[in-house]
Design goal:
68 residues; mainly alpha; 3 helices; rod-shaped
Length: 68
């Protein structure tokens, strides 16, 4: 009885996976989300370097603005 129940459950899961594999409407959304996750991860990893670069750029802008 338990084996039949497990087999029926796995069969339903398998049918759901096949059905989900045929539907490609959400692929664009998944790709955008994955790209955003990677970009956010890179920002977190290189946060100190990015902060230093931005401070340097804004420092130069401030110096050039004062020179005018």
């Amino acid at each position: 009885m338990i084996i039949k129940t497990i087999a029926a459950f796995l069969s339903k899961i398998g049918k759901g996976l096949v059905f989900a594999g045929e539907d490609d409407r959400g692929i664009g959304v998944v790709e955008v989300i994955l790209i955003l996750v990677v970009l956010i991860g890179l920002v977190v990893i290189f946060r100190d370097q990015l902060t230093g670069i931005m401070n340097s750029i804004f420092g130069r802008i401030a110096e050039d603005a004062n020179a005018l």
